[in-house]
Amino acid sequence: MPYFDANATTPLSPAARNAWSEAIDTAWQNPSGPYRAGARVHNLLEKAREKLAAILSCEAKQIVFNSGATEGVNTIFSYCASRGELAKRPVLISPFEHPCVVAAARRFFDDAVVEIPGSREGRWDVVAAAEAVRGQNVSLVALMAANNETGVIQPWREIGEICRDAGVPFLCDASQWAGKKPLKGIGEAGFVTASAHKFGGPKGCGFLVVPKNVTDFRGLVGGEQEHGMRAGTENYPAIAAMVAALEECEARLQSPRVVEERLKWRQRFESDVLQRLPGTRIGGHNSERLWNTVFLILPQGANDRWVRKLDRAGFEVSTGSACSWGKDEPSHVLTAIGFSPEESKRAIRVSSGWETTEADWQAMADALVIVAKEMGSGPGDVEVIRL
Ligand code: PLP
After folding, report:
1. 11: which DSSP letter?
2. How many angstroms is it from 66 CA to the middle of ligand 1?
3. For residue 203, which atom of ligand 1 is closest to its CA?
4. Residue 68 beta carbon below 6 angstroms from any ligand 1 atom
5. CA within 13 Å, CB half, 30
C-alpha cells in the first residue's frame, strides 16, 4: 500500500530496529545506575551523543535527548520567557511555523508574538526579517528549516547568521529537514529541534541543540540527567535507534544521484498531475522544496473526501499537518502564501519516504486522476477503486 504521508511519520528503519532491539536486550539498565552495567549504558549514551554531535556540527554537551520537537520547542519558549527583562521583548516567527511553535509562542509570549510575512512562494522574507531583528530588541526568532506542508526550504542559515550577529537567540525547527537534507552546520545556527519518527527512528524520541553560549538552560526539572538540561531517565534504546536511523539517512544523502533521482520522480509526478488534472496548483511551486513533498491544491472537491477516497484506493495522504486533521480550519501555511480558505480546503499533501519507488509515484498520479473522475460524478464515496 503506497504510503505518502512521510511528513507525518515514518516506519522504523531496519537500522533503527536493529539498534533498538540490541539495546533493549543488552543496554536496558538505567544510565545513572551505580554499578558497572549502568556505567556501560551511560558510556553508550554519551557515544550516541558524540555521533549525533558530529552529524549536527556541534559539541556533544550541547545536545539534549528528549521526546521530540514539540517538547523541544515548548522548553525553548519556556526558557526564553523566564529570562527576566530579556523576556519582555517580542518574539518573531515566520507565518509557516508548525502549530507547536505558534502555540508555544502564544502561550509564553502572548501578544508579543510578531509574525513577519513571507513570499507568495512560501519562503520567509530575509530582508523583512533582518530589518525586524535589527530594528528592535527581540527575545527569540523562530524559523523552521523546511516546511511540513509545502516542503519549501527556508533561509535558516541566513537568519541564523543575522541573529548571531545581533546577539538574538534563534530557534530552527529542523523536524522536516532532518533525514531528508544533510544536517551539517545546523548545530551552529542556534537552538535546533527534531523528532526521530520523521526519519525512520522511533516515536517519542528526539533531540534539541542548545547554543554554546546558553549555560542556564533547564528543560524539564527533576534529576540531573542530560547535563541538568532535561530531567527524566534517558530512553537509551530509543536514542540508539534514532542515531542509527539518522546515520542511515545521512549516508544516503551523501549520494547526489540518490537524491536527484527522487527529486525527478516527484517532479515527473507534478508535471503529470498538472497536465492530467487541469486547474491543479502546487503550494510553493517555484521555490526550492524537499525532494519528497508536494502540496496539491486540487481543482475540485473537499480535501477530506480526497483523502478518504485515496485511502480506500490504497494511497495514504493527508490534508496537511497531522495536528490539523479533523479541524475545520484552512491551512495557515497556504493562507499565508495567498491561497483563499476555499482553495486551502482542496489541498492535499503528498509526502514520500525513502522506501517510496518511482512506480509508487506513477500509481499515485493515476489514482488522483481516477478519484477526480469519481469526485466529478457525485458526492457518494467510492468503496473500492481498482487501479
Ligand atoms: N515541527 C514540524 C515542522 C513538524 O512537521 C512536526 C510534526 O509534524 C513537529 C514540529 C512536531 O513533531 P512531534 O509531534 O514529533 O513533536
Report:
1. P
2. 13
3. 15
4. yes
5. 8
Helix axes 99-109, 69-81, angle to 10 degrees: 20
The residue behind cell 540508539 is 240
3-state secondary structure of 273: helix
User: Counting Cβ atoms within 10 Å, is residue 62 exposed (0-12), middle (13-18) or buried (19+)?
Assistant: buried
How many whole angstroms from 147 Cα to the centroid of ligand 1?
Answer: 10
The answer to whether 323 is a known catalytic residue is: yes
Backbone φ and ψ of 178, nearest 5°: -60, 125
pTM above the 0.90 mark?
A: yes
Q: Name 323's bridge partners.
A: none
**What pLDDT is stored for residue 329 in this prediction?**
82
Mean pLDDT by 10 residues, the chain (387 residues): 95 98 98 98 98 98 98 97 86 97 96 94 95 88 98 98 94 98 97 98 98 95 96 98 98 96 98 97 97 97 95 94 65 94 96 97 97 72 41
Buried b (16+ CB within 10 A) or exposed e, 68-100: bbbbbbbbbbebbbeeeeebebbbbbbbbbbbb
Residues 6+ apart with CB under 8 A from 106: 113
Does residue 173 have its Cβ closer than 6 Å to ligand 1?
yes
Residue 126: closest CA among 167, 92, 87, 173:
92
Which position has the grid cell 557515544? 47
Q: What is the C-alpha separation between 214 and 236, in angstroms, rounded?
A: 25
Q: Could you write out the DSSP letters of every residue in 62-121?
A: GEEEES-HHHHHHHHHHHHHTSGGGGGS-EEE-TT--HHHHHHHHHHHGGGEEEPPB-TT
Nearest Cα neighbor of 335 from 309, 376, 324, 326 is 324
The Cα–Cα gap between 323 and 259 comes to 28
Residue 115 φ/ψ, nearest 5 degrees: -95, 120
The closest alpha carbon to 283, from 182, 351, 355, belongs to 351
